[in-house]
Amino acid sequence: MKKTKLGMTFLLVISFMISALSIGAVNVNAATGNQGYAIYRDGVFFNSTDHAGFMNKPDTNSYTNPIIHHSGDGYVDFDTYSGFLANNTFKGVYRPNGTVSSTNRDTFVATARTLQTEQISYNLMFQVNYRDFEVGSYVSPDEITEMRCDGVVEYVYEWNNFKVYGSSTKWDVSKATLANKDEHRATQVTPRSQRNYLTLVQTSKP
Amino acid sequence: MITKILLGLCLGVPFTIINFSGYLKGNTPSIFQIFSSIVFLLLWLLWGLHYNYRNKGSTTFLKFSTLYWISAFVFVFVMNGIDWIVFSIPTVIIFLGPLYGLRYYIPNVSYESFAYISLIVAYAISLIGSLLGYITNRSLAKK
């Protein structure tokens, strides 16, 4: 009897430790703070529109590479808060509409980090550009040839099934049809107008 | 006059291309972009100087320069008023882009104010060029 009780206690302790460890592991990966949210600042084209970026880390103070964006030079890449701001005015942190879980935000971050590794050049014309007819039903990160700054935000959310801009049938920029691509062309949506299709989280520095 | 307006528009093309990466994202202008805007202003100065030196008493360049820069001012005024990017993009590329390097010297004002200031500077430079051309012509004629 005593041995059974001891054995039960041992099992309980072990299962508790495993649970605690697994909860800890989830917490390590789960998005916190502003991680997985879109950020904007003004100053583009003599302030005709804004510049969009993506929060790679929970905040911009305590982490390296807090932001992923396309600066217009080079590729989609990590940056600091001051690099993103470039002496312009911060406009706010935004999240997709609807319920966004911590797990969703993890997938947003994972997608954005994949874009960062793909050496994607800048394009002013299309939010997301790729070789038409050379991709499958959906455009995966490795098939993207060029992007605009607001394309990074649009793609990350819509690739993960969170609608940002677009009609009910053509909203998904990651869907490889000419109609969907055209829906996200030129000035149909801009970084400034894109904010109207998201939910404001805060206007202060993230 | 139409030839001059076309020339004025063409003159800005290489400079707006050089400055594009600066004003595209509102980044601080590079040394090359600052230099580009200064050269652009110097060309307007030399244009006014040369024209009025060769055509003493002619007001053609003054009229052209006034028409060009006042038009730019009106375009920018409308651009700031209507906030329509389809109108803003060509206005910025044609009139404001070549002057973006001046942002280095005027960093702390709003883009709206900076646009007006840079246009006034460009117009003033062209007027100074005209005046210098007129003065040079007169002083050489006396000799």
Task: Provide structural commentary.
The longest helix of chain A is centred in the N-terminal third of the chain and has 28 residues, at 2-29. In chain A, 41% of the residues are buried. Chain A folds into two domains: 1-30; 38-202, endopeptidase fold (from Nostoc punctiforme) (Alpha-Beta Complex). In chain A, β3 and β4 form a beta hairpin. The model of chain A is unreliable at 16-28 (pLDDT under 50). In chain A, strands 4-3-2-1-5-9 form a six-stranded antiparallel sheet. In chain A, strands 6-8-7 form a three-stranded mixed sheet, covered by helices on one side. Chain A has 206 residues and is an alpha+beta fold. Chain A is built from six helices and nine strands, in the order αββββαβαβββαααβ. Chain A starts with a helix and ends with a strand. In chain B, α2 packs parallel to α5 (111-142) and α3 (60-82) packs antiparallel against α4. The N and C termini of chain B lie far apart (32 Å). Chain B has one domain (32-142). The model of chain B has no long low-confidence stretch (mean pLDDT 92). With 143 residues, chain B is mainly alpha-helical. Helices cover 80% and strands 0% of the residues of chain B. The longest helix of chain B is centred in the last third of the chain and has 32 residues, at 111-142. Chain B has helices at 2-25, 31-54, 60-82, 85-96, 111-142. The A-B interface holds A 42-49, 51, 71-73, 86-88, 124, 149, 187, 190, 192 and B 21, 23-28, 79, 83, 85-86, 88-89, 92, 96, 107, 110-112, 114-115.
